[in-house]
Design a protein that fits this description.
This protein is α/β, with parallel strands linked by helices. It folds into 2 domains: about 70 residues, no CATH class; about 160 residues, no CATH class.
Length: about 300
């Protein structure tokens, strides 16, 4: 029997009974499956073959472990923020169980740092996409210590992404410093993805003539409040500005379903909650690699999550 619900008192119960079509059994199982996939040890069955292939043609001292094991350790570090010395301890335990060789944390560090993260997306049709950016601090100390001891500010990095509106997966991304403007980074990303984008959604930070000229009226990006109604290099942008001036910004947003742009915030929220915002690397190139690995592994996890 469905309980009587007081709308003013308990809205969460109302959502549980009425609002969601989520299939919890399927969703819960997919959350388990995605971690099982990322921490899969089935490569141990072909361990000797993989190691032999890795050492084929190797000059000098041979490798003690194959790349599959290094990728396994890299995923553990990316998802759970495990230090390199802790990875060595875990590898020692695995070496005893699986009868394989272990390596030092310094060798684990060197091998992981050679990994080049890649999304490996295969896109065959045009999609509605969203472009946005978010910031990542490059130090784990709090602001108090920096202020108290007058530490030099280290700044932060910007993660720029293009996500698919349909499945909220990253199609392309780049990482820049805090001083790089969104529209400048967007040019690089959109030039690579232009053939796969039907419509591109973005906030005012992407109000750029280059982007309007690239996508025309399919650039669902609100222009600045003081935007000119004259073309001045982009007729598509000028036409949008004239429509807004004649009607209203709210009308333009409603006509173009601009509200769907907030879906990108779901992605950023999930990325920072699941993969955490902690980046333990010190050198800038290692910080960029760790952040890229988080994006790649979270993309795999999102692709394996099925809620409906």
């Amino acid at each position: 029997m469905t309980p009587q619900i007081n709308n003013k008192i308990n809205r969460s119960i109302k959502r549980y009974w009425i609002g969601s079509n989520r299939r919890w059994e399927k969703y819960n199982e997919s959350l388990v499956d995605r971690v099982e996939y990322l921490t899969d040890l089935s490569f141990i069955k072909d361990y000797d073959t993989l190691l032999e292939e890795k050492n084929n043609g190797k000059i000098g001292h041979p490798y003690k472990v194959p790349d599959a094991l290094i990728m396994y350790l890299a995923r553990l570090r990316s998802i759970f923020n495990i230090p390199f010395r802790t990875l060595e301890g875990m590898l020692r335990s695995l070496a005893i169980i699986a009868n394989i060789k272990s390596i030092s944390y310094s060798e684990i560090f060197r091998r992981i740092r050679r990994i080049k993260p890649d999304l490996n997306n295969n896109i065959n049709n045009k999609l509605d996409c969203i472009i946005d950016s978010t910031g990542y601090k490059i130090t784990i100390r709090g602001d108090y210590l920096g202020h108290k001891w007058h530490k030099k500010r280290k700044g932060w990095l910007k993660l720029h992404v293009i996500i698919s509106m349909k499945d909220v997966n990253v199609l392309s991304f780049t990482i820049t410093d805090e001083h790089t403007h969104d529209s400048k980074a967007a040019k690089v990303l959109l030039n690579k993805m232009k053939s796969n984008i039907l419509r591109i959604f973005g906030d005012r930070g992407y109000d750029s003539k280059h982007i309007y000229n690239m996508f025309g009226y399919n650039a669902i990006i609100p222009p600045r409040k003081n935007a000119s109604t004259k073309s001045r290099g982009s007729s598509a942008r000028a036409k949008i500005v004239r429509f807004i001036k004649k009607n209203s910004m709210e009308q333009w947003k409603e006509n173009n379903s601009y509200g769907k742009r907030w879906i990108v915030e779901i992605y950023f929220s999930g990325l920072k909650r699941v993969m955490t915002e902690v980046i333990k690397a010190k050198k800038i190139e290692y910080i960029i690699q760790e952040l890229a690995l988080k994006v790649v592994n979270y993309n795999i996890m999102r692709g394996m999550t099925h809620a409906y």
